[in-house]
Specification:
With 334 residues, this protein is mainly β. It contains one helix and 23 strands. The chain has two domains: 23-164, Sandwich (Jelly Rolls); 174-330, Jelly Rolls (Sandwich). 6% of the residues lie in helices and 38% in strands. The strands form four sheets. Strands 2, 3, 5, 8, 9 and 11 form a six-stranded antiparallel beta sheet that branches. The protein has a six-stranded mixed beta sheet with strand order 12-14-22-16-17-19, with no helix packed on it. Strands 13, 15, 18, 20, 21 and 23 form a six-stranded mixed beta sheet that branches.
Amino acid sequence: MRFSLTLLFITIFCSKLWANFAPPVNDELANAINISNTTGFCSEDAAYNNLEATSSSMYNKPMSWMAIGKDVWFKFTATKYDVNISVSGAVNSGSPNTLINPLIALYTFETGSTGISELIGSSSTSSNVTSFYKGALIPGQVYYVRVSATNDATGNFKFCLDNYFPPMQPGQDCGTVSILCSKETFTQLNVTGTGSNRNESAGTCLGTESNSAWYMFKASKAGSFTFVITPTVTTNDIDWIFYDLGINGDCSMVNASNAIRCAAGSGVTCTPSYYKTGLSMTETDLTEASGCPAGQNGFVKYVDLVEGHTYAILIDNFSSGNNGFTLEFGGDAD
């Protein structure tokens, strides 16, 4: 009897000891904790941790991380276009959160595919609170959030997630287009969100918009027309569409059949890489597809403007980060 009681105590002690050293339930992507309330969700302090977590080495290190560290996983189904995610660690000496220098990465995963795909967003860290932003999410798509920390740090943390529609800004849709009155070079300081309709570009080389700005003008003089778009951050991927809307054209004429030029190549990730894009007097192609097809360089053939026709330019920053671009015009048309 004494032996049985001793064995029972040992079993209970070992079970508690094992529980203390067991990895978190969301240690692997397959067991990611689902966040069902995606509107302004915030957990309690110290609700989650990566204590005794293992490194998910079967998936590549995120591009901005020095190492994988002790990572854990969350997931959510997008219902809106933009998401802000934050992980709060040890913000001060009295905080119940203990994680130091949290890291966040975002992914999509398709069953039967080759694995997960990292989505590049913008991230910032201050006082052991890391925030991550990504726009152009697809409603209905499941996204996976990877949380770790630098230097293999482990600890408790608070997890927040807000999936939302970005506020409207002038020029994000054709209906709020900016009118160009001259060929003067200008800089759009930032471009964030897609307005109320991210599918105005449907059927073109662009597909759907990510962070868009619309411009419109009427040709007062026929002739050749060129432009160069230079992102303010040269690692950003700029895409665009040029529409001929005809005599007295307006936004009702925006469709794929009136998209006479289009460029959506992923120049900043191609070899050789490029970041400038536009219309050129020396190119002969009329469109450039997404990705890195051979021979693409970001530029397509110039346009011969017709006097009295209305033209529209949709410029889309595929990259996140609220960055803009400079637009410079050329040619002898006005």
